[in-house]
Amino acid sequence: MPVIRSNDINTSSAWAKLHQHQRATRHMHMRQLFEADPHRFERFSIELDGLLLDYSKNRITDRTLELLIDLTDAADLAGWMARMREGEHINVSEDRAVLHTALRMPAEASLAVDGADVVPAVHAVLARLRDFSNAVREGAWLGATGQPITDVVNLGIGGSDLGPLVVAEALAPYASERLNVHFVSNVDGQHIARTLRTLDPQSTLFIVASKSFTTPETLLNAHAARQWLTGVLGEAAVARHFVAVSTNCEAVAAFGIDPANMFGFWDWVGGRYSVWSAIGLPVMLSIGFEHFSQFLAGGHAMDRHFFETPFIRNIPVVLALLGVWYNTFYRAHTHAIMPYDHGLRRLPAHLQQMDMESNGKRVGRYGERLDFDTGPVIWGEEGVNSQHAFFQLLHQGTRLVPCDFIVPMNSHYETGSQHQVLVANCLAQTQALMHGKTESEVLSEMAGMPGDMVDMLLPQKLFPGNQPSNTIALDRITPYSLGMLMAMYEHKVFVQGVIWGINSFDQWGVEYGKQLAKVILPQLSPQLAPAHEHDCSTNGLIGHFRSRHGKH
Ligand code: G6Q
Q: Which atom of ligand 1 is nearest to 215's Cα?
């Protein structure tokens, strides 16, 4: 693999030209761009299989896009895309390929990685998952006392939780009525305790979902669940009530789960990209294997679009470049994502992990320091509710906050005109953010008001506008369209990582806190000598816990 020093990107001529272009165009208002070009929507939107990206409400011209595309050349985006697609070890710090795209390839495809075709292996596991999920859903898989399964509890955290949780929630209209799926991630005991409170061990199935099978939070929850189950049904019941999703067969067996009830995946699947693998088992149980296959097909359709479409018409590439434009050249610190769909309300949390764990890095893929800002703070909430919460800052605050609005054109729940109201709100917000409200518009609304009131209220009622947003409109939230949407964001994050020269597939930043927690844990015990080796704040807080715990 060629060694391309990542931090060279900010010495490229494309980078310098983008800085110049930003300085030259930063006072341009989108309102004028729309007035000047009635075809801006057609020119700056892309449609793929019922997914429309409207990116016309951005502070861009054709020249901006041209320069951003030049930046992809400087970063060798095409080369990195080919390296990812072909299974080169682009996760250099862990010496791994990055192949979540292989998880959504059709059975007739092939992809040789390190000398072996991975597609048959992917489909072999999928076939086992199909048989198992069908058996549970049809009531053929019975618990230890002969009862069919009514409740499934996924025990996992991070990538082994958020992806399947979001998909299961978003696709609830496709869910089985006789199988409830629950997700327990937090080591805070209340999460599992509150989940198990209403469940019956005889009809509950646990999925221990952990790629490493060493994650303490998940193992503690798994032990708590096993105790809850065996306390009623005895040790022998574990075989009928626990399955595992992992890459670590030995640890699964050591926990007491029969490896026959383990579903594997591979080190080339990163945790936050793993919902397409056996980690998707809770989704399969909920919506059925056929629907899950459509989810994979949607992801694959987006992969093909990503790998095969010129950059200027390439949805993930365009989204990524717009993000780079604001993040790097406007120095916007955050990016907000607002799904106008109740089922997608946890999507921002998944995208937050996927983006921030991938690109929240200060050094390049070869360890070189980067002298520019990288991944933005990703945040967001479901639409409409957030209008009544934080939209004030978006409309009239002092910060530039680029936004994505995600909205389905049809609802699974036709409740009078409620869906139209939802969509009208979404469109109104993007319009208001772009257009703003001018002085003359505000003055005409205040006609007849006393002069001193006008003086006081005019600045408060002005909306500067020019706040950029993308609208992603889906015909309907289906397994297929959700697959497209989630793969779209994965590729967007990858492209941004390539531009900034980052390895988007490791996560060293989450390790340090885990190490320190191991040191602090025994020091919380009052039986042991108090700790003095930390800073005085940490020592003080450990002492405070020891003196208060169990007494209040
Ligand atoms: C994701 C991260 C992280 C991981 C969890 C769970 O990309 O690596 O969120 O998914 O720490 O890890 P295990 O699946 O190994 O328990």
A: 16
